[in-house]
Every structure is written in C-alpha cells, then in structure tokens.
C-alpha cells in the first residue's frame, strides 16, 4: 500500500514528519535513485529510499531515550557553528534518533529522543496538550497581577529571523516557588502545553521579568530528578505507554 514519503521516513526513524518534509524539500531524499522534492509523493513498500545516500530501513526497532540535557548543547542533529549536539551525547545509540521538540542552547532538563515518528508527532501536536513544566530563575519578583496575566495568556511581541512576530500564548499555570529579595530574583514554575520558539523566555519577558536561568523539570510524567546533566537512559515499556496515553502527574521541585 502506498504511503506518503514523509510518513514512511518518520516511521523508519529518519526524523519527525516535519523534519522529514524539510529533508524532502531541500532535495536530500531520493526514491529509486531519483531526487524527490514534492511533499505529496507516495512510495510503495519495495521502493528504495535514501537520505543523502543512506538507505532508509523500514523495520528499525523503535527506541525511546530520556536525556537530562546540559547547558551549551544544541537540540539538533548537526550545528553550523560546530557546537556540541544532543546526538553527540547519545552517539553510542545505533538507531537514528532525534529530539522531540527542542530546548535552547542554555536551557537544561528533560528531553525525549526517539525514532518513533508517530509518537513524536503526537507529542508535539498542540491538541495533545502534554504538560511541559519549567522552572525559571527570573529578574525581579513577579506580582500577583503579572502571574495572573500568565495564567490568562499573554501576548508576546518578538523578533525571529529578523522578522517581527506576535503570538498570544495559551494560558499557563504559574506560581512563585522561591524568592531571593537580596538579589531581587524569583523562581517561577510554569506549566505550558505549547512549544513555540523561546516560549517561556518570551512569556516572562512580556510581563517584565527576563529569564536568567531555565530548566525543564518535567515532560508529561517524565523527570530527570536522579540524573546528572548529560546522563541518559532508555524509557521502560510502561513509560512509553504512559506517554502514548497522555498520563501526567504534577509536582514541584523548585530546583535549578
């Protein structure tokens, strides 16, 4: 049965469906020796698919890893500035895995990596509404009104790729879990469901409290409380099933 090329690539663990689409439009994919750039292209089970000359194997074992992402590591497969990537940390994993979503270069914490394109797309889709819990050390101490604005959903004005961009962030759960009056800083825990570029930093800036340090302490039911920065482990069968079923829990650690 014919399937869309990007779906087959995602299921084979090449990349997420969105990332696979980018590989196709950039001309990095061939089918039976012919370069393909159209996203509507369908392929048959016996077609030979290659990405930059590497064959795509359709029966690769699905694997799922949890990483405690350290600072100064990028959440990409490669980097044009030659910085370390999360895949450099998991270089001993034989499967072609990729991160689910992204964390900024200077952001630490929970990051899921897999070659399961269907699950990755499910988790990243806004309708799935998986909890992403962040703890941000911010400049200044947010007022009740500022926290209320975060809870109602703030409008963010930012610049991305030299273009002005405005978006209305969905309502977040927001609370102060620590204050340092001497240094005029606060620890704010935010629970969001979206995954926009620099979202937490932009939301806090929108209410007048720039982020000084940021960590993602939970993703759905997953945390890295007992893992050192740069440490990773494979998820258990139950953890994978809980992710697929949207199981979540709530707790606060307040640590950065």
From TrEMBL:
PROSITE patterns: PSI_RSU, S4
Enzyme Commission identifier(s): 5.4.99.-
MF annotations from Gene Ontology: RNA binding; rRNA pseudouridine synthase activity
GO biological process, one term: enzyme-directed rRNA pseudouridine synthesis
GO cellular component, one term: cytosol
Record domain RNA-binding S4: where: 3-71
Domain of life: Bacteria
Sorted UniProt keywords: Isomerase, RNA-binding
Protein family according to the UniProt entry: Belongs to the pseudouridine synthase RsuA family.
NCBIfam families named among the record's database cross-references: pseudouridine synthase
Protein name: Pseudouridine synthase
Organism: Weissella viridescens
The organism's taxonomic lineage, starting at the top: Bacteria, Bacillati, Bacillota, Bacilli, Lactobacillales
